[in-house]
Amino acid sequence: MRIAIIGAGVIGLNTALALISRGAEVTVFDREGVAAGASRGNAGIFADYAVLPESSPDMLRQVPRMLLQPDGPLSLRWRYLPRIAPWLLRFLAAGRPARVKHITLAMAALMDHVRGDWDQVLAEIGAEDLRVTRGALLAYTSRRAFEADRAAWQAKAEHGACDVEPVMGQTLHDMEPALNRDLLHYAIHLPNLSHCLNPHGLVERLAQAVRDRGGELRHHEVTGLHPTEAGVRLHLPDGAAVDFDRAVVCAGAHSAALTRSLGLKIPLETERGYNVTLPAPGVALSRPVSIPEKGYYMTPMSVGLRIGGGVELAGLKAPPRWSRVEVMARHAETVLPGLNRAGEARWMGFRPAMPDTLPVIGPVPGAERVLLAFGHGHLGLTMGATTGRMIAGHVYGSNHRIDPIPYLPTRFT
Q1: CATH superfamily of 2-40+201-267+357-412
Q2: Structure confidence by residue, pLDDT tens digits, 255-271
């Protein structure tokens, strides 16, 4: 079976490997090349704890306050509000208690397989050295913020998503001596959390594994696609067309245009993320440390210390607002006294966000030769290996380990 994959990020390349392992002949298309999007600059966290939807009654109560904070974790460019308003209404609806329960169960079903699926993929491609399990800390300046988040983390733990250990005072600073002991007093410890030492390097190894197994990577844009009697036809910018038996859309935040060419309107938005990587930070963290009150992670990697996070709602076309990076970096300087920012590299990327947090995984209704795999939000790295296996199951008709219904595109028809 000849299958086209549109998108050479962590989702697309995991999908390519899973299909090749089942005997498919795979060609991967990407207009910018391997790991050019969110897969290149993410925070490197395998966040298998993330079973709760982004929209919830508690979170919605905090949104007005966050939007009024110029240096807060959430930012909206007000000119973009009319465009994003329908998506925001769906987002609000996803925060109703009944929907939260449904979404949480569906997310937990995916997360149950994340660690095992990545174990298999990393072993197959010889990249086990790029994942380490050192745990993580979520550190707080106030007991009030700590206690408010502690309840949510206990709810995640109840779904088997993670172990949670409260730490405070001297214990916290024994674990991470570089943290400012006068500023941070409380923390939540996630002892089993894993992180990636080089997200870009991981995706490059996935790409090489695809090539080594006979897959082809083409540095080409796909402008549209449509089913034919025999399969799927992809359209290229120069007017050329190429035919395949199946096609999988894994183009992240850029997937919406391709789904529109199929007559399918999926409410996909982008949550723009920013980060800065410090090659010689001058201070050492042994594990990722999050500052939830400011909405960012500090992740120690082989390429340096990466500081990133937050959400900006501004679409795909607005220029970067680098002040978002500066706010995080300046706060990190207070958290890590002596932090060296020399040689810093800044990055902005587009996270493909669904209003209900659930990714879109499965065949297009009425055009089953086209499959979709996008909308993972902040969790593309986390769910990459599991998504690839799910798509292979759809293509080859195997029994699903995970009930596929909550993630199907049919929920938008």
Answers
A1: FAD/NAD(P)-binding domain (3.50.50.60)
A2: 998 998 888 999 999 99
